[in-house]
Amino acid sequence: MLCEVLNLELLAKQKGHSEFEIPDEVEIPYVETDELEIYGISLTDTTDRRDHIRSTSQPIRTAKIRVKQDVNGDLCHQVNLATEEVVKVLELSQLVQDVTPRQIRSKIIAIGGKPVEEIEAHYEILKTGGPANAGARFTQFPKKVLWGDFHKYISESYANYTPRIRDQLRVKQTLGYYIDARDPHRPVEGKMLSACSAIEMLALWHAREDCISEKTDPKIKNLIKNWT
Fold this sequence. Notes:
Layout: H1 8-14, E1 27-32, E2 36-42, H2 46-56, E3 63-69, H3 75-97, E4 105-107, E5 110-111, E6 114-115, E7 124-126, H4 150-160, H5 163-168, H6 171-182, H7 188-209, H8 216-226
Antiparallel strand pairs: 1-2, 2-3, 4-7, 5-6
Helix pairs in contact: 3-4, 3-6, 6-7, 7-8
C-alpha cells in the first residue's frame, strides 16, 4: 500500500490534459538503472481510498508500482525479483508518508512489450497479512526531510539503500521503529520506547561500522556526527 503524494491534476495539466481529463494512468519515474525501471502509478480515486482508510482503518490499494526489467529467468523468478525492488521502495516511502505500506498483489502484465492477454502466459501472487499501519495519517513529512517531490526522494534514497545500509546497518528495522513511534494510536510510553530503540540501533551499528566505542556517550556523538 503506497500513498502517492503527487497531485494528479497537476500532472495531468503538465501532460496536456485538463483537470477534468485525468488519464487512467500516469507513470511517474521512481528508479532508472541499467537493469530495471520503477514507476509509480496513482489511481484516479486515490483521495477516496485514503478517506476510506482513515475512517475504517482498513488497508486497501492506493497506488500501483510498475517494474520494467530486462533479466533472464522463468515467470516466478521475474516476479520475485520485481517484488524485492518494490518492497525497497515501500520501505523507503515510510519516512515521508507516516504510514507502513503493504504490498497487496504482484502480477505480470506484459512480456517483451506484449500484453499477457495476447500471449499464453499468466503469473500472479496475492499477498495477505504483513505489516500495515492503516491508522497513520498519509501525511507528507515537512520539507526539512523532503525537499522536493516524492519521486525525487525515492530516486535518491533508493540509490543509497544498499544491502549494507538496509540490512547490516539495520536501517530497515530502524524505519519500522520510527513509524511505530509516529503511530497516533499508541500510548506515549510505547512511542518513546520505539523512538529510543531506533536511536539506539542506529548509534550501535554506526559505532561498529566506524570502530567507535559502543558505550553510550561516544556512540551517540558518532551518530550525531554522521547525521548532521
